[in-house]
Amino acid sequence: MALSVGVCSSSSFDFVEVPLLKLSSCSKLSNRRGGSPVVSRDNCLGKQRSSIKCFASNQNPTLELESEEDASASCSGDDDDDDLSHVMKFKMSDFKIHDRVSIGLGDRSDEVVYEATVKEASSPLFGTRVVLRRLVTTQAKRRGRRAIEVLKRLAHRRLLYHSYSMQVHGYVCSSTTGSSFLVHGYHGSSSLRHWLQQSDWLPTLEATLALDEESVRRVGDDTVGGPAISRQLRLIRILMRDLLIGVNYLHSHGLAHTELRLENLHISPVDRHIKVGILGNAADFHDCSPDDSKLDSYTDRRKMMIAFDMRCVGFIMAKMVLRDLMDPTIFAKFKAFLSKGNDPACLREFLINIVSRNPSPENVGFQILDRNWGAGWNLLSLLLATKPSGRISCLDALRHPFLCGPKWRVDPTMEMIRWSLGSTAVRIAEEYIYARQQRRRIAHFIELMEMLNPHSKPRHWLELLPGEWRLLYSTGRHIGLTLRQPSIRVLIGNVHLRITKLSKPHVAFCIESEIGFTVMPGQDWAHNKAGTGGKLQVKSLFKLRAGRRLYIKEESATRIYSASPDVRDSILEKLSNKKWRKVIPIKEFPSSLPVAKLVSSDIEISMSLDEPLTSNVETAKNVIREVRMQVPPELFDLSKIVCGTYLDSRLLVLRSVNGSAQLFTRSLVSESC
């Protein structure tokens, strides 16, 4: 007695007998009809609902297909034969059907998958293991015919097709049963999703790809092994470059895949290339002559379809790097964030709140994306850009620093330099203890960012400035609780700056600072942070004007040297070396830089405390005094903010009247709830 398995959506489908069935972790077993197991699978292999049913059977596994063999012998149609002349037409007697089916091959509910070996000695595929995909519905047959049509279009560059696409060998036609079989290559029993779901996926994939020094040279590396984070980054580079080459191959032939996802990707252990799935839903974007009246519409269609594929590649990369996104619930939040029109440049700030950052060997996604000055986050934001016109192409992605190993020299663009400076400043603010050396470094990077400010005109600030920003760092004073004995101990939480664009004449913005804190009444505050919550809010109206920030040049004779070198001198020293001089041709520090001048009006201050401190006026005074002591004075008195010196989609730098800088990142706390 054997078990039979098939992927289907109704009980009328046939099944192939298997002596053993291994179920994945997302399968659920239930008993039905005297103990016969039924395996339900929801969204395990794709968006469509499918089921795997197992039942006892004493029949031979090929009996079910004998009728198909007779029907295929009588299948006729001269017109169809002409259209399908570039592929082989098989009979069911040409195959030896296997008694098991790999669970990673099933994908759709209207298809039944069989594994077989070609046993016809006269066939060029004699002895080759193939997959028979039974197409039951009309839509499934349309996909099968489309996959064959695409092969005809790509035949003149068959080497690339065989390297990066799942090979379609031919078909078996059945006129009596109304179903057809698509015969395509077998490239392993698991899709890329199944590989990544394994607990030992990293060493298993490394063994499958047989990584050696020759293979890693393809991604600009010359080493193998090493820490888990280096091994995973190297593997992601190999898989992503293979995927991008395959997708670019389709795009260069006027085709868009439209169904790129982990379930449609397979890794061949033979040639060690990643294979994109069957091109059953590949869409055309035909090229046309410059004189064609429909040139604009064709161009727009091409851009939109390429952008759709690149977005799918972005989702694949995100799941490969951040394993938490394999969870459907977390991935749904991830897609909802993008569908609301949020800028993907803020993905890091968003994912901090929903993805675990535990630095275990199984979860090193944040470390991988943070490497090389945040290059991974930059590539991910370009693949998932909100506007299709802003998404990166395959060729540009292949030249991106994240996908290029240390042995390849990549000249960074100005946008990449800005991104790197900002990412480095954020990492320093998050990870380092603020000793003198770290304070000098972060001030150094903020000055560099201000010199490369991409939006110096006020009209640009009108579009990008509104929103909620979280304070990361201030170059001003830092006063904590450790070396003081205040009358009441207050722990500062997140400090946000909420900026709202107004339609009033002569007033541009309403800026409101919100300071969250916790009042800790006990003496054991160093170990127990529990206490009473509170919130301090300061609000003011601002006008926006064009202005310039002046740099006063002191004479060397009258300059008073301090223990630490001047920040501007260190910046000039950095920019004068060979690496920076190519992209930033600055010979001397500028005397002034354009800024967005902020002119404030009156301020309003309000504070709220939770019970039981709401009725104690003296305690409230002490809390305000302590909060004012710890936070930067510019956020308690907004009138001290005089200008904005740097702004992009994710970072903001404001300068106060005393010259100190406040670094903010765009906050998406409300989006992550």
Which descriptors would you attach to this protein?
673 residues, alpha+beta, 8-stranded antiparallel barrel, 6-stranded mixed sheet, 20 helices, 25 strands, 33% helix, disordered N terminus, PAP/fibrillin_dom
Would you write up a description of this structure?
The protein is of the alpha+beta class. The chain is built from 20 helices and 25 strands. It has an eight-stranded antiparallel beta barrel with strand order 18-19-20-21-22-23-24-25, surrounded by four helices. The protein has a six-stranded mixed β-sheet with strand order 8-12-13-11-10-9. This is Plastid-lipid-associated protein 14, chloroplastic. InterPro entries: Kinase-like_dom_sf (IPR011009), PAP/fibrillin_dom (IPR006843), Prot_kinase_dom (IPR000719). One of its GO terms (molecular function) is ATP binding. Residues 99-403 form the Protein kinase domain.
Compact summary:
Keywords: Plastid, Transit peptide. Helices cover 33% and strands 23% of the residues. The protein is an alpha+beta fold and 673 residues long.
